[in-house]
Amino acid sequence: MSLSIYYFLQLCAIFIMLGWCLYLVYRIGQLNNAPIAIMAIGAYLSSYAVLHWGWPFLLALVFAVVCGAVFSLIPALGLGRAPSFAMVIATIALIFIMQTIFRNLPWFGGALGLFGIPKVKNLLLVTYIFLVAIGILIYRFDHSRFGRAAEMIFIDRDIASTLGINIYMYSVILQVSTGAIGALAGVLYAFTIRTIIPSYFGFSFLLAITCFIFVGGYTTMWGVIFFTPILWGIPLILPQSMAVFRNLIYGFSLMVILLIRPEGVIDKNMLRFIRLKSGVVFKKLFGRSQKTVDKRLKEVM
Amino acid sequence: METLIAQLINAIALGSIYALLVIGFNLLLVVGGIFPFAYSHIVVLSMYMCWFVLKITGNNLVLGTVAAIVSGVAFSLITEPIFRPLAKRGAVLGSFIVAMAISMIITDIMSQRLNMGIVISFPQSLQGKEALVSFGTATITAGQIATIAGSIGSGIGFFYLLYRTKIGRAFRAMGQSSFSARLLGIPITKTSLFAYGIAGFLGGISSIFLAMAIGTASSTLGDNLALKVMAVAMFAGLGNLGGGLIAALILGLAEGMALAYLPGNWSQAIAFGMIMIVVMVKPKGLFGAMA
User: Fold this and answer.
1) For residues A100 and A81, is the Cβ–Cβ distance under 8 A?
2) What's the complex ipTM?
3) How many Å lie between the alpha carbon of A252 and the closest alpha carbon of chain B?
4) pLDDT at residue number A300
5) Cβ pair A86:B35 closer than 8 A
6) Which CATH number applies to B2-281: 1.10.1760, 1.10.287, 1.10.3470, 3.10.590?
7) Among the listed residues B6, B12, B29, B5, the one whose alpha carbon sits nearest the alpha carbon of residue B241
8) Quick check: helix, strand or coil at residue A93?
9) Domain spans of chain A?
10) Is A56 exposed, middle or buried (0-12, 13-18, 19+ CB in 10 A)?
């Protein structure tokens, strides 16, 4: 496999994970950007453990994910009750705090970052196993009691709390679990790029992820899956002179989509429509035709 | 001691620029009903326009100032039709995302097209670096005095407009509830256009002060400034105009002192750390949200 396709697949998987992080907390109406900050923690801790302590990859991965989840508990406890804007701004601030911390702490190489991170065998396979596993977990969450409760919180917080839903607990649990996913994405990112510097985990990253999720659709988990490869792939296909305007393309698509389709391209109605249509097509292809049904009926009668 | 006083003056100048920006930001938030993340990007874009005019006219300061203010108002008004459907729908979080998209577009244009993405630097004559008052080793420059005086002047002018004129009353009514304001016969579209214009005007003025204080501008300045303005607005409580002024001064002082007396570039972390703590302890800001 050529190197560019490898990077494309790998980065798409990582972006989809991060998009799901934003999606999960947005389920209860809070826009949480902390996963990008936690991602920096995951990337730095895991590569430091491998480079300086000589740990194997999987151990470093588990260590980084646990650290990320534990760290994300701190803002989660404070921000669980915060109104949605307070959360947006505080978590953006958290991204900048993390960048400054990693730039200034003596162990992480300052602005030069960490480099020479070793290659890991079958990283693509590992990444996609994690991606599918997380996807199944999120699907199960969406179609469970908890997912329906989260939906209610999104629609109306007051009614949700009168129904006995503990909004604070939901917020904290979702933030911590997205922290873990964010740290995992950070580990995979570090071992894909194999050089990390603090400015990678900054604002431009957040803008790209926000574009992917809000263009794709934030009400379902499928929007991110379909639109991350498309939006990430567009600048790669375009000629070099056009590709530098990547952010311009993202900005315009985000603006236009939000104005004409406020819920993103793939929303719940579209999913319902697809399910209905695919059911009809499936019946036409594989189901019994009316003739055979009539025949069977006659036989039975 | 002398350096401390000089640093204090510097910090107050910085804080008064933030205060002007926060006034414009809060005006758009309360009257426009949107979350104007791209406001600071428009301010930086006006800085670029000011720089272009200065370059073409051979450092004509009057024309440069006019260009900054006109472009601030014009760019601010251009964004109004984009935000109008969102404001009607009451989708504030959606308007934040659209504003983010606009900021992406402006940043990309600045980093690719304007001056080929190279950092622009303003001429010495605009920066006002000559010492007006000097004591010991420390000096207070003309630029700092002009910034502080200009900010106080425009602040007073704005509050006069808000509390003593008819349009100001319309602003406050729309801030309370745009639905009831419509019932009372306030022309919603005209009033919000006016608010965008005033916010752009304040942005244009602060872009000149920023050019004086910093002396350079780059495409990343918009993002940095946007975060700081948002942080100040959050710190005081979103939409709280009076609290915003105090919070802007506090942030300016904290940042100035951190820049002067802390090693490395920890100053950013200090500013944002303060925000995190305030948001966690008092989620509605220090002075409470007005809107």
Assistant:
1) no
2) 0.83
3) 7
4) 67
5) no
6) 1.10.3470
7) B29
8) helix
9) 3-201, 269-300
10) exposed
Look at B10-19, B100-109, B152-161, B233-242 and tell me which has the smallest mean pLDDT: B233-242
Nearest CA in chain A to B83: A259
Q: Domain boundaries in chain B?
A: 2-281
Q: Which member of B96, B98, B285 has the closest CB to residue A255?
A: B98
Residue of A nearest to B103 (CA): A251
Nearest-angstrom CA–CA distance, A142 and A152: 12
B272, B281, B284, B286: best to mutate for the A interface, most A CBs within 10 A: B272
Please tell me the distance in Å from B35's CA to the nearest CA on chain A. Answer: 9
Smallest Cα distance from A280 to chain B, Å: 36
| Amino acid in the structure at residue A252 | F
Tell me if the pTM is above 0.90. Answer: no
Q: Which of B27, B284, B1, B8 is nearest to B155 (CA)?
A: B27
Q: What is the pLDDT of residue B291?
A: 44
Structure tokens at B52: 């272009």
A111 has a chain B CB within 8 A of its CB: no
Please list every residue in chain B whose beta carbon sits closer than 8 Å to the beta carbon of residue A81.
Answer: 283
The secondary structure element, H or E, covering residue A195 is strand A195-196
Contact between chains at B108 and A84 (C-beta distance less than 8 A): no
Q: Per residue in B70-85, pLDDT tens?
A: 999 999 999 999 998 8
pLDDT < 50: residue spans in chain A = none
E strand or H helix that includes residue A239: none
Convert the pLDDT of each residue in B33-87 to its tens digit. 888 889 999 999 999 999 989 888 888 888 988 999 999 999 999 999 999 888 8
